[in-house]
Fold these 2 entries.
Entry 1:
Amino acid sequence: MTITRRDAIKTLVISVGGSSLLSACGGQVSLEALAPTPVPRFYSEHEMAVLSRVSDLLLPRTETPGALDSGVPGLLDRLMAEWANVETQADHRAALTGLTSRLETLTGGDFLGASDQVARQSLTDVDDAEFSGDQLDGYRELKGLITEVYFATEAGADERGWDPAPGRWDPCVDRS
Amino acid sequence: MAEFDAIVVGSGMSGGWSAKELTERGLKVLVLERGPEIIPERDYTDRIPPWERPNLDRISQDEIEEHYPKQYGGVAYAIKETTKHFWVKDSEHPYEEAEGTSYDWLRGYHTGGRSIMWSRQAYRLGPQDFEANEQENVGVDWPIRYDDIAPWYDHVERFAGISGSVEGLPQLPDGVFQPAFALTCGEEDFKARVEASFPGRSVIPARVAHITAATDEQKELGRSNCRVRDRCEHGCVYRAYFSSLNATLPAAERTGNLTMVHNAIVQSIDYDPGTARVTGVRVIDAETRERRTYTGRVVFLNASTIASAMILLQSTSEAFPGGLANRSDQIGRNLMDHVSGVGVSGFMSGHEDKTTFGRRPGGIYIPRYANITEHDKPYRRGFGFQGSVRPVNGPSGQTPGIGRAFKESHRAPGPWRVGLEAFGEQLPDPNNRVTLHPSARDQWGNPLAVFNVTYGDNERVMLQEARKDAIAMLEAAGCTDIRAAGLELTKPGNRIHEMGGARMGRDPATSVLNGWCQAHDIENLFVTDGSFMASAACQNPSLTYMAFSARAANYAADLMAEGAL
């Protein structure tokens, strides 16, 4: 199945709005994930669409909620609008633009329109190159930020097995 | 007739103890806090889960630049969107630094002061720490010795709740401990290898002011055992770690003898030359700008090392034109902190099938060995190491992969990482000082602080050697991928262990306070925050402030009971 740009943007609206996906996946989405407005404050619609697809490829829905289920693109939009200063915003935008350009090249000029398989392969290629010495400016920071935002959501915390109140200290337990 | 038996200036780590001890002796005590009231139920943020903290709990970068450049620059790890109310805004509380110097004055103005945000490491000074100045002819001799303060360490540990292990180390005396947070299997391994390779060194569990076996007294104050959540910088609704807000102030409150006034910025202390005593303090209300004078039979200065020095320097009179109790010209001098800058890390193999449960509040401690069990060092005094050996696996873009495998890789605990950081002793130097700005004033009309503090050769050489020692210990422990950044000393003040400024000593000509933290020149004036420290030792100092405050308060109460004050 291929998705069109329009479908991609529709996905992004759902991922930002959150509630549709909440009911769709039956998972829990935090209040913060629901807080961002449906209209991006920092990203252009195209940037939001790319970011959404990258986030989904990086941290997909499995048996547990993924980045889109958790509203990660919307949280990133809010982070960039509210936390980042002008310089950080510019660096972040440049990183996203650079990644988009690389992904477009790898997908024949249409990352958003590419099939899941082709899109996944393109990001895999970027990631493989990154960790083989052919680094893309700002990619690790972008990947790190998406990852950090996801694992700071309730679903992400569950994914890591984060316990809000352990109640005891055990200095040495078996990994299971 | 005075309104109060005692006025305590400051409600933080030491002020809480002064208030507790004095009120429990039946004295009517006024505590003046320059900041607003912290109400735990309203202002602690430890119950907010990470996903309800906006924007990864980050303060906006523009806000940091405008309001928190110093505070955030100093302790970025602790100042978050949901904790920033515990830290001052630099924009509202400016200070200056002498040309070519830099100083981190990191603080919070509110009930409990920095006892809310401290790192809770709690160690006794050892006998050597009270003797070194005399033996080395550095600074002035401490007027008391370890045995004088030891019972007061017992006293404050029993009440505060210190978790720790009995080790029998003479340089780091044992105390009244609740059960320690046990070493991880990686730490047990590290300990065995380091102690085998370096027989004079010990690796022990950090001693931290966390309740692990609450006493009846602690339970009566609403305190309970640590839940091992690692939320301490947000406050603690369980009151499990010691702070004046969690422990000493409630104890003072329940006596019925405590009056607490917030937003009261002390500008000066009144002195009566006829009786050679202080009579009260002058304050300005932080919000209304109303000026008031409170009178008391005794004044305890617990405003913090820097602020207490400034209040004394601001309190000029014909009798003390250079500042109250400053005949020695030592007020504001000999500022000390601890010095770090040795970040060494590596990875340990052999425990891949193990992990930990819970997020304990401390780690390991390697007590000072330099010039104690190991000699011929190219520097004086020494340092302790704080650190940990634990699995690390944080969300990061630094690992390869995308998709399911990348996502699920975060479930597994990461490799066992060793990290060590040194805390070195800074020697007293009268040229390291804080003075009053000759003209610049804050919004309440008080002079700005001007810092002129630098490290000397001893600190630089010591930390270079500490870095080598840390690397050698990680090598001895079989660590791999050992990383040690180039030596970059922390800025003075950055460890938030301000000491000196009104040192105690035997001679009124060269020191401000006697061995009871009592001004040589003024018998009803006591200073029991970090100001009294005649040397810094290398241990985290809060426990020592507590013990000296309790001892001084009971001494003052004894004198008052005898009619001598």
Entry 2:
Amino acid sequence: MQLLETRGVGKIFGRVTALEQMDLVLNQGEVLGLVGQNGSGKSTLLKIIGGLVQPSSGEMLLHGKPVRLRSQSDATMHGIGMVHQEQSLVPNLTVAENIFLDKPNPAKAQGLYRWKQLYEAAAAQLRKIEVDIDPRAIVEDLRFAQRQQVELAKVLAVEDLVSHPPIILFDEPTSVLTPEEIRLLFRQIDRLRQSAAIVFVSHRLDEILHISDRAVVMTDGRKVADEPVSALNRESLYRLMVGRQRAIRAPRGIQSDEADPSKARLQVSGLSAGQQVRPATLSVAPGEILGLLGVQSSGAEEFCRALFGAEDNVQGKIKLNGAQISVPSPAAAVQAGIGYLPANRHVEGMLKGRTLVENMALTFGLDYGHRGILVNRRAERQVATEWIGRLKVKTRSADARIDDLSGGNQQKVVLGKWLLSRRLQLLLLDHPTRGLDPGARDDLFAVIRAEAAKGLSVIFIADTIGEVLDLSDRVIVMRDGTMSAEYNLNRGDAPSEEDLVRAMV
Amino acid sequence: MSHVQPATDPLVPAKPGFAERRAALRRGVPLAVLILLVGVSAIIAPGTLSPAALNGFISDAAPLMILVIGSTIPILTGSIDLSVAGIASITGVMLVVLAPIFGPWTCLVVVLLALLFGALQGWLHAWLQIPSFITTLGTLSMLSGLSLLLSNATAQPLPDSDPFINLLGDTSFDIPNTGFATLVLVAVLALVMRYTRIGRDLFALGAGERAALMSGVRNVRLRSFAFAISAGCAALAGLALVSVTQFSSPTLAGNLLLLSIVGVVLGGTAISGGVGGLWAGVIGGLITAWLRVATVLIGVKPTGQYIVFGVMALIAVFLTTDRTKIGIIK
């Protein structure tokens, strides 16, 4: 049964056409997988259906009747719910308050809360998705995966607002989840499948093929394919999306030189950070790509942040090219030639409101100045523009504001900030592919491989096991703040996914 | 299936987009306001543009301009320095107190002390992570108290042989030297802001503090620098003030605090940091100084001036806040 239809929907931001002539039908009992490269208009389409953005042209029909959604809460009242990529809960309120934040609820009377009824109603919503979370708990006290479940309960509560089947939109929900949490999410989607229309966005083609009934591929704001998943496989989906064949990894010849530690690029001994990272010892060779793997709070992220001096209570010794870094701090790390691409690029990676060149020249622009004192803007601009080209950043101009780019392109700019350095020794990548489409990810990997071949050492925390095996020379698995397994891929170690998962959990 | 962008040239010829036009507007409006203000005043009272009146304006405006330019620097980083009026006031008092010890070098010593004090204040604010608002409110109170204490709450004549004060109080080519001092200060700071790493890092801190820290910007050093500059400028402003009056008064600059901040925001520097700059400070300082003239011209009593300035401050903040930065989706 057809629930929602968009007819010729388009959206123009300033001079940029984000979405053009989009015709889309959402049916009850069907999971629609939506894929496309960064900046292809997926998010815009989802925001239009979710009431967050008003279309510039075209119309939407809900049950055959034209409808205008003026806001997200308006969409909620029409039974349309959206699970955001980054969680949208208010951290200092209770679970129950969050679930009913955007909708009328039984517990408000004459503007006063009736807490008991509110908690009961929330408990009913949580029971519906079979999770055991106390509705009285404060959201910030919950674990990440639990918060995701609350978010899901909040969105699914729209079922009760309308008499018809709800429409649930998932905007890259899996990008921040562990494999176990993804399985839980998929179980919920399977449970909803019959009683709702679902749109599922992911950059992981396997997930799309696994969970969806129908796949829609978008490129440059247009729909280029709309086919049942049974007619597709990984390769054909990739081709539809990227427009070229997938690159196959060529093995590289870098050996990690444990026998001769004097030649190591990085030597870490007894590095710890509070309870999150237990004393760890490690060395990385010049040009080596080391993959770190671990579930959320395994200590992999914290290990990288400790190396960069961005964690509290860092103990232990960090030596780069044999010279010790005295007081760990980001400024000292940068001085020594360590770069860090943060997982949270919005807060820690990019300067909002500034141009691409300004963002990229921030840290190492002076490498291109006079005697390390005076800034040479022309030289900076030139090298930044070169990197914008090499990283294939999709932008109108090097002087565009970084906010105007799509997420994946912003990530490339933040990476460019480090790569344009002439003296970068070690690059730490914390979930570098988060929010990147497969094509952009391959571009990114190619650039990282090329830089590693020139001698840059890389430590990288992957989103998936596949990525780690794809890019790394050596893999270290972390669990509970310690290193639980190590595989040297170039020496013939070939761990299976099962081996790695066993070491992770 | 189309290849989205050729790999070699991803740059489409640049045309100014919406955001750039907005930014240009924000830069252009204060200048237009200044010209309009001067134009209207000249029509109401043509005498305001006579050489004598302009010279009066320059001596009157120079201390305020210097204060505004100094205050701009911490505000660019997202902090604020409220102690500038206190420093400007205590400068005159220190001149009187220290003259017997340092003789002709007193002015230099006073400015150096101010720079040190500012650096310490910036260090306290950044290292101990005390909000600048409260740090400098505290030091403002301390400085005001100290001025009253050191001067016994009375106005005292300056030692008449101080070479630097005499130079500042003099004129060259019939134009007050304080005007030239302001120009030199602006030129030096403009060079630092444009051609050293400091300028860029100041803006970066204001635009996104955590991203700047994670990019290796040295927060504590930079904030110490920013507050040292604002304190140093405040001391210069104090010297410019006493060079006109030839008297030191412990409450000399008390009424300049609001005006200096009004000046910063009227020029288009956002109080949230990261947007604006020295040029904005210059224009904002000129507008504020001219407003003082204009309010008298249109017959606002001196007692009523503060109402005008308060209203101007609100309007200026309203116009200069970069709302896209907050990221609310309408």
